[in-house]
TrEMBL record:
Keywords: DNA-binding, Transcription, Transcription regulation. Belongs to the short-chain fatty acyl-CoA assimilation regulator (ScfR) family. This is Helix-turn-helix domain-containing protein. Residues 127-147 are annotated as: Disordered. Residues 14-68 form the HTH cro/C1-type domain. It comes from Acetobacter fallax. The lineage of its organism: Bacteria, Pseudomonadati, Pseudomonadota, Alphaproteobacteria, Acetobacterales.
Amino acid sequence: MSKRAEKVFAGARIRELRSRTGQTQQALSEELGLSASYLNQIENDQRPIPAPLMAKLCTLFGVTEAWFGDSDEIRQIQALREILGDPLFRSATLRPTDLQAAVRAAPALANCFATLYHAYRATRNDGSPGLSHALTNEASEGPPMPSAGRPDVGMAVRSEPGAPPVAPYDAVGDWVQREDNYFDEIDRAAEDLYESPAFRDESLVIGLVRYLHDRHGIRVVTDPELDSRAVIWRFDRRRKLLLMADGVPSESSVFCMAQVIGRLDYARLLDRAVRRSGLTTTDARDLARVGMGNYFAGALLLPYRRFRQAAREKKHDLDQLQRLFGVSFEQVCHRLSTLQRPGEEGIPFYFIKTDIAGNILKSHSATRFSLPRFGGLCSLWNVFRAFSAPGQLHVQVSRTTDDAVFLNVARTVGHAGVSYFDRPRNVAVVLGCSVAHAPELVYAAGLDLSDERMIIPIGPGCRACIRTDCRHRAIPASGFQIDAGGEERGVVPYHMAPAPG
């Protein structure tokens, strides 16, 4: 499959860099060896950024090419499309090109609009105080803390407890996304511990058990009562016991032990990451601490350099990596999505965990792939096929509405029920990357990537999807006219056409 050269329009991002350093357009053009008029055209998205100029800008401002990528722009456009699908905006008939122009010209304003809509949904759905009260509290708090090295795209809103414009779970997810799901200090600390004498020349599970006992006097024991209360493990500090439910798989037990080690020996490091997040509600900070503990555990079980090297050698064969490191399928997939260490990056993956109803339980994207925030998932996605064949790996080549092509794999995870009356949790994970990385993945074997029939057209969810000919559509898309008349009837009982300009 030939890869088309992509034109990068990122005028707003260049203006952001200039504003940080206080440079005028004239001064920057002279430093880059350009005419002021040419730079002005680039900043107004009348011309794309040429590759040589991109390299100069990266060197001059100390950023990577990812800064100028359009992943954030695509996420913003999709968010706006979903928002405008709300009946509140039923009179709005903005075209896709209108949204793209708005995001490119004023990304901060588009983000403010999304923030306002988040506040509206929170007060409408959660029974919180009125919207004006929530926004007044927000204004008195001051602006959100900017993220390090990125524009405030998808910035979670700060709020007082009791009137959160953004749910804590979403706020934490936005923060992790802004950090590219990579936390350098935590990652390196876990890797250093793995490489220390404490874990040398023996299996990881034995090393974890011995570390907890020798350093903290903690014993790991089985408690058959935990399972009846749907508890996997419990840490009894007073008795210095780490209690495990009966029948917990080994990969879950090592993850639990790694979490406890992080909590005991690296609490300050984990708390420092949370303090830097800008999250202000107690619930959000508590969720973030849990997330950082999980991150430490994953980084300890799958140390960065060893795991990245093994992933390359095994061509990212998930089953082989799972057996090699003695972890779960989900843990391998999630760890692959975190390999964003500067200068030692792995393949940029997106990772999603969802239940059988399509509820997104966990997600992150290091690519331009973007998930819906307010609607459901596309029914053409292979994650739904995974639920019909539990335990089997499903490979899919898909094309999104912005013509990006991805190779992804999906599989159910979790455990079978322990009795007839048990109701095991049905969840699945999806791991995907740009098809440009297909030669580095074992899952491309046997696929004819030049055959367009192999590519499944998927969307971001019906509210934001611009495909007008999809027979799987559940609801109309925003920004389109609906024609329910005529002398013909398809699978979908109406036709859609772009709104007139």
